[in-house]
Amino acid sequence: MQTTDTLTLSVFADYFQFYLMDESVDEDFGALWDDEAVERLLAVGRSSIGVGTARNMAVPVAVSLFDGAPDLDPDAWDMVNECSLALRSGRLVILGGTDYLPDAPRLPVAPGDYRVRISYAGLNTLSEDGLDGDDFYRIDLWKAPPGPLVVRKARAGSSR
After folding, report:
1. What are the φ/ψ torsions at residue 139 (nearest 5 degrees)?
2. pTM confidence score
3. For 15, left (φ over 0), alpha (ψ -120 to 50), or beta?
4. Above pLDDT 90, what percent of the chain?
5. Is the pLDDT of residue 2 over 80?
6. What Å distances lie between residue 100 and 38, 47, 55, 61, CA to CA?
7. Residue 82 and residue 150 in contact, taking contact as beta carbons nearer than 8 Å
């Protein structure tokens, strides 16, 4: 499949998380971060996703829009999750937990339902103080009917 747009960002993952969300939605993640979500580093709402991170710092994130499901290469990643996301406004917002919403980066998309694949790399590369590391988060999305959350590859040592 072809990439139609990509954003490469440094996102401040305050509280070890950042968000992908429809611009017009404000979902509460309090109940979504249950024990299973924490373990898989992913909390899923209808129109927003909380992505867990290895560090409580700025982390590198690449968000790519595809014209169809991209190839899956689980061997290249520490873990891979996939879920659905409704983007009715036509604007995907990427932001940290304490970022100011009006200033957050946006990726224009056609309104509708999307599949989102979150691939995590370098989760075990943190410095002893947890401030530095080579962790990386790739977000791939494409238009697709809603479907269940799927753990494509669990993190080594995970109970899932």
Report:
1. -115, 120
2. 0.93
3. left
4. 79
5. no
6. 24, 18, 20, 18
7. yes
Dihedral over Cα of 21, 159, 155, 157: its sign: positive
In the prediction, which pLDDT does 158 show?
58
Which residue from 121, 117, 128 is spatially nearest to 85, judged by alpha carbons? 117
Amino acid (one-letter) located at 128: E
Tokens 């590369």 correspond to what residue?
125
Residues 59-94 pLDDT 10s: 999 999 999 999 999 999 999 999 999 999 999 999
Given a contact cutoff of 8 angstroms between Cβ atoms, the answer to whether 150 and 117 are in contact is no
Are 120 and 60 contacting, i.e. CB atoms less than 8 angstroms apart? no
User: Which string of b and e fits 58-85 if b means at least 16 CB within 10 Å?
Assistant: ebebebbbbeeebeeeeeebbbbbbbbb
